């Protein structure tokens, strides 16, 4: 027994294969150096056409190289952690601290009360001492439906929680469990309780009693007063869940690249190895002191008993009046809330901003990703949902980078330089749009005009470009497949990588600039969690969903049409050239243009071949065709 008391509660391991990755990184670095030497030694003369296009391409490649360096820093030293729950339970079962869990919602239409309540019931069923578990439903929308749904949940939990514990139910969300479970007709005891629970969840019994008489977790509903003259900062008094760590509705090939497997399985452990992961909205547990603005001290020691043995001596009437003050819209006026206390305000990704501030106060974060996902969310089921979500994230991240809260400024001498660089991987999402748009548009238009921007296929300098492209993409594919993806899933992820950079990140970058100039204000956009049957069916069939007019779709369609026009023009020149000189001179540009055409096949299908309601609208087709033809005409004439 004494021997077990000395065993560690967790283990930390460095990722395997680091030497191979470092060798790969060295090869890519050498290839990039050769590309830069070529660019600088072959700059067209002032009188030659394409000089400025060449320089723009060089600066784009310079940016891509910097961003590659940042992602390499993230991947350089990932670490993985394992925990030993049996040892924790044996050693500290009676001393475990109280835990507050916030379930956040904002719109009863986009986030239906049934879905929210299923989430509440699932966290109430955690394998944790129930008397130390407090669940808060933070309703930013102040919905009556959500409130009364929670009342029903408080009754239903009296039988659902014992049912989960007795039969080790997985998953613990009632809706998810009964959707996937098989009725246990062969087990009389469980079959009887199964029927009881099914009746309750279907609402056919009004009274629910505690069948075992055990303590239930505390369940609290939060919703604050709102008035036009007081900015509510998109808060109901708790926090916003922005970044689900796992998803239960992903398709096999993940058509919208929403699984985030590489991020969760490699990049977040890379954050951990470089100094600690960033706060990503949900699936995070904080010490109370970190959110109260307290600085970390080496002599700090958590007083778990202080929080576990709290008692309230005030009368009910006094408590009611106190709660009214806390719930008022003016409670935080002229206080440190949103500055030093709680989550940071005035940023659409306040989770990341808050995490940076916490780390700069000396607190260390760690990343733990168990095999059985502890937090499941719903991934976007349409293209527009995914693009809008990333637009909000990229705008907020760039806002942090360009402000005094930038890790290089706020974190100077407070967090490691490698962690500051690691943050840039996300904070510079929006800035990626400029170089990507340039690379997608300019080489294609130069091909149309007959201006070469890459070495000839017979020139030895071409090997540097071919080597970097092939090796880098091969590593990307291997990385994606290693963490559970498929080849088609990787291709879909590459497509979404392009779409997000040319639309989501572009609009995020543009909105930030307009906000700084005083033309717009940031808005918190909620991603819908429900979809009608037709949308769900197309999503399950991995058919890309358009179906509406959007500036994002207009940009995607314009770029797709522009590249197909330039590609056809390039092929026409190659076919007409008997001596194959055109192919030798423009091979890389033709291949780049052809790759962009191939990756945009869903756009062409949505424009010209699909007739369902999810195809691209006629207005988008007209606008994109006009813009593409105009761009080609300007390039030629």
From TrEMBL:
Biological processes, Gene Ontology terms: cell wall organization; cellulose biosynthetic process
GO CC terms of this entry: Golgi membrane
Catalytic residues, chain numbering: 140, 351
Presence of keyword Iron: no
Record-linked InterPro entries: Cellulose_synth, Nucleotide-diphossugar_trans
UniProt subcellular location: Golgi apparatus membrane
Keywords per UniProt: Cell wall biogenesis/degradation, Glycosyltransferase, Golgi apparatus, Membrane, Transferase, Transmembrane, Transmembrane helix
One Gene Ontology term of the molecular function aspect: cellulose synthase (UDP-forming) activity
Gene3D superfamilies per the UniProt record, alphabetical: Spore Coat Polysaccharide Biosynthesis Protein SpsA, Chain A (3.90.550.10)
The UniProt record lists the keyword Transcription regulation: no
Membrane topology: Multi-pass membrane protein
Residues annotated as binding UDP-alpha-D-glucose: 111, 140
Positions of transmembrane segments: 20-40, 52-70, 427-448, 460-483, 552-574, 586-608, 620-636
Job of this protein: Thought to be a Golgi-localized beta-glycan synthase that polymerize the backbones of noncellulosic polysaccharides (hemicelluloses) of plant cell wall.
Record's protein name: Cellulose synthase-like protein E6
């Amino acid at each position: 027994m004494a021997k077990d008391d000395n065993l560690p509660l967790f283990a930390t391991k460095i990722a395997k294969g680091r030497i191979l990755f470092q060798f790969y990184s060295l090869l890519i670095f050498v290839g990039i150096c050769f590309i830069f030497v070529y660019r600088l030694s072959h700059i067209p003369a002032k009188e030659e056409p394409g000089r400025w296009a060449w320089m723009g391409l060089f600066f784009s490649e310079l940016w891509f190289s910097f961003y590659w360096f940042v992602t390499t820093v993230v991947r350089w030293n990932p670490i993985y952690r394992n925990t030993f729950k049996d040892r924790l339970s044996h050693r500290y079962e009676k001393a475990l601290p109280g835990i507050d869990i916030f379930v956040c919602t904002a719109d009863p239409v986009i986030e239906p009360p049934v879905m929210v309540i299923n989430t509440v019931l699932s966290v109430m069923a955690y394998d944790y001492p129930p008397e130390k578990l407090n669940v808060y439903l933070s309703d930013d929308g102040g919905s009556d439906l959500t409130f009364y749904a929670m009342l029903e949940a408080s009754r239903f939990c009296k039988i659902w929680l014992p049912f989960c514990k007795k039969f080790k139910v997985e998953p613990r969300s009632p809706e998810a469990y009964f959707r996937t479970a098989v009725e246990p007709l062969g087990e009389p005891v469980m079959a009887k309780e199964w029927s009881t629970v099914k009746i309750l969840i279907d609402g056919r019994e009004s009274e629910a009693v505690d069948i075992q008489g055990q303590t239930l977790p505390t369940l609290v509903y939060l919703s604050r007063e709102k008035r036009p003259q007081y900015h509510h900062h998109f808060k109901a008094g708790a926090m916003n869940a922005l970044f689900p760590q796992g998803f239960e509705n992903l398709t096999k090939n993940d058509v919208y690249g929403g699984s985030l497997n590489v991020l969760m399985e490699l990049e977040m452990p890379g954050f951990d190895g470089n100094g600690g992961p960033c706060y990503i909205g949900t699936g995070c547990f904080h010490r109370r002191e970190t959110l109260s603005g307290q600085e970390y001290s080496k002599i700090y020691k958590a007083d778990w008993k202080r929080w576990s043995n709290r008692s309230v001596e005030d009368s009910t009437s006094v408590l009611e009046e106190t709660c009214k003050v806390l719930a008022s819209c003016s409670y935080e006026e002229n206080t440190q809330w949103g500055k030093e206390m709680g989550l940071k305000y005035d940023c659409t990704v306040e989770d990341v901003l808050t995490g940076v501030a916490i780390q700069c106060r000396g607190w260390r974060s760690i990343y733990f990703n168990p095999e059985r996902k502890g937090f499941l969310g719903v991934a976007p089921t349409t293209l527009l949902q995914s693009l809008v979500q990333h637009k909000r994230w990229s705008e907020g991240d760039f806002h942090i980078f360009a402000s005094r809260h930038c890790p290089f400024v706020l974190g100077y001498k407070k967090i490691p330089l490698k962690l500051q660089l690691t943050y840039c991987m996300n904070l510079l999402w929006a800035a990626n749009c400029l170089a990507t748009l340039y690379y997608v548009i300019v080489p294609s238009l130069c091909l149309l005009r007959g201006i070469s921007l890459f070495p000839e296929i017979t020139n030895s300098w071409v090997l540097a470009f071919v080597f970097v492209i092939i090796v880098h993409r091969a590593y990307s594919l291997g990385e994606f497949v290693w963490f559970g993806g498929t080849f088609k899933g990787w291709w879909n992820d590459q497509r979404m990588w392009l779409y997000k950079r040319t639309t989501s990140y572009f609009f995020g970058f543009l909105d930030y600039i307009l906000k700084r100039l005083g033309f717009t204000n940031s808005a918190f956009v909620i991603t819908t969690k429900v979809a009608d049957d037709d949308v769900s069916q197309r999503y399950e069939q991995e058919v890309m969903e358009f179906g509406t007019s959007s500036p994002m779709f207009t940009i995607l369609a314009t770029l797709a049409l522009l590249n197909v026009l330039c590609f056809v023009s390039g092929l026409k020149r190659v076919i007409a050239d008997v001596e194959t000189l055109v192919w030798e001179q423009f091979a890389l540009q033709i291949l780049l243009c052809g790759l962009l055409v191939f990756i945009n096949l869903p756009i062409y299908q949505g424009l010209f071949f699909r007739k369902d309601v999810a195809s691209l609208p006629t207005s988008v087709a007209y606008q994109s065709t006009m813009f593409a033809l105009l761009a080609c005409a300007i390039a030629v004439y």
